[in-house]
Amino acid sequence: MAHILFCSRMYNDAHDVLKQLVSLNKSNNDSNVKVFPSDIFDALWLTRNVCVPGYGVFDALFSVLVEVGLLEEARECFMRMIRFRVRPKTRSCNFLLHGLAKAGEGELVKKCFVDMIGAGIEPSVYTYNIMIGYMCNEGDLKAARSLFARMKEMGIIPDVITYNSLIDGHGKLGELDDMLCIYEEMQAAGCSPDVVTYNTLINCFCKFEKMPRAFEFLREMKQRYLKPNVVTYSTFIDAFCKEGMLPQAIKFFVDMRRVGLSPNEFTYTSLIDANCKLGNLDDALKLVKEMLEAAVKLNVVTYTVLLDGLCEEGKIKEAEEVFMVMQKDGVVPNQKSYTALVHGYIKAKRMVDAIHVLTQMSENKIKRDLLLYGTIVWGLCNQGKFEDVEVLLDEMRAHGRELSHVIYTTLIDAYFKAGKATEAQKLLNEMQEKGVAPTIVTYCSLIDGLCGLGCVDEAIDHFHNMQSTGLQPNVVAYTALVDGLCKNKRVEAAQELFLEMLDKGMLPDKIAYTSLVDGNLKQGNVQEALDLVKRMIETGVELDLHTYTSLISGLSRNGQVQQARDFLDEMIVKGVHPDEVVYCCLIRKYHELGNVEEANFLQTEMMKRGLVTVASECSAQNVQTGQGEDVAEYTAMMEGVQGVHVPATAFKCLEVITISHAPYIAEQCVDNHPMYMEYDNLTSGSTIIWRKDSNPVECTALSLSFCR
């Protein structure tokens, strides 16, 4: 039948008959009636002399097999035709090459092309376009350029599609100069750029943050009377969004609709993502509503950026609702969708739910990448669940997943923060043994962790090791070491590092400045500390609560009480709210100087701010002066202040101290180390012991703060 129809030049009917025969193989599961393409080929070959000999029917079968997606069978048909000396048409071969390229069958694409040339089938410009386009998409520009040269040698003139593929290939790899050379060659050859050419150029320059050049091509595009389309506008909108330039993106969005272009899902997704990242969730949801009203469906990327935005803002309930709607709409969550939800659960400290999401992923056969594992590890570490971390790491290894430098760094940082220096060091050794090179972030975690534990010399060793590997210390590394040296009373060494930072053109942050200010004041270097404060202000680094606390406490300790008081007034004017630590050191100093009036004034101010710890300082002064009976009167006065409540535990502490002068002090309280500098240590639950050589006023104040 196929032969007769073909000989009668009823090509469409012959095509339909062959398609029906091939479809029997695809649709019918009954093996008794299956018709295999090879059988069809054999039948056609045996009946080839039914009418006037012709071989076009074999090419028709070849084309049908590609059309229905039976690429392997089509390739077999192609090879049989070559073997039986029935030459396929170039057009049919192009059809197969395109199908294989689209299916990602790279090796078969190359082999078919070689077989095609070997069989004497002349490639056309479309053949080369398919091959060059595929090579460019794969990033094999050497092969693409070789094919480009060969086609020109054969006298085949490249068209706009050829040039567009090469421009896109070079652009994707950031080879912008080569991309422009192709563009210039294109024009020199008399091939006019089209909208796709300009969109490709604009996209590449936007991608590599060269917006001015992208605008040049937009102007050139308009000069050639080529109208920017949805892709053009969406590319600029996405680039503006990624740069955080939302107003400019919205301007393009408005202009796009003004010229009659309808935004697509990519356009909306870019704007939704930008709004979510800026915390403008209401605006993001308005865009979602507008998108639905315009009958533009939300895709998996849109849903994912919305999930990410909601989770980032702590709106986990709303994120769960979006996740449910997403699945009801038939949109299958991908790895990034699940990762966003996991991140949200971790932020909400709902680790059980986060682990449940991992189970869902396994059930839905969604692979977990290192980013997701890293997120879970980070969450477990933050909650101190190191045993669960070990279980997760074992699971990773069981699935053949090696720990990345990000996960190693997260673990090292967490172990140091938990005071587990030995475990952190073991991880570093394991990391290096497995050939995972520590990054600058890893070294910063090591230096900061060791300094926090007082192991400054070890931190310095890692600081030097980092440089020996070719990594240059950044502001974080320098700051951690400066802080560690200052806390270790090695202020001169810290100052040398600080100057080294400046010499390298780095801008120290407020932590580095505050550490040096505090360190100098503890060494009695008042002028050096004040000079640092002056430099801070001149370089635009704002003083925060920690800086003012160091200044006020240090100046008070060095007898500069008026200057300390001036800084208190300054911080209030600047909107930096003093805490009980700031007030207590000034109150204590005024008591030492016998200026009870000023001390009482600050106590009153402190109470007005609702800072209950004032009871500690005042009660301590009463204990020192033997006025224990005033404690009850003072606490009653505190209860009378609006908004101030003295807890029962505070009364109990006051009672004990008043009656027995109970000698309680936190273990960290050492000689000449005032209460305000150990405040954070006290809140961590330290053992309380008696120190006979400690200042009774200071110790009592510490006791009360600790009891509170």
UniProtKB/TrEMBL annotation:
This is Pentatricopeptide repeat-containing protein. PPR repeats lie at residues 89-123, 124-158, 159-193, 194-228, 229-263, 264-298, 299-333, 334-368, 369-403, 404-438, 439-473, 474-508, 509-543, 544-578, 579-613. Belongs to the PPR family. P subfamily. Keywords: Repeat. Gene3D superfamilies: Tetratricopeptide repeat domain. It holds the Pfam family PPR_1. The keyword Transport does not apply. The keyword Cytoplasm does not apply.
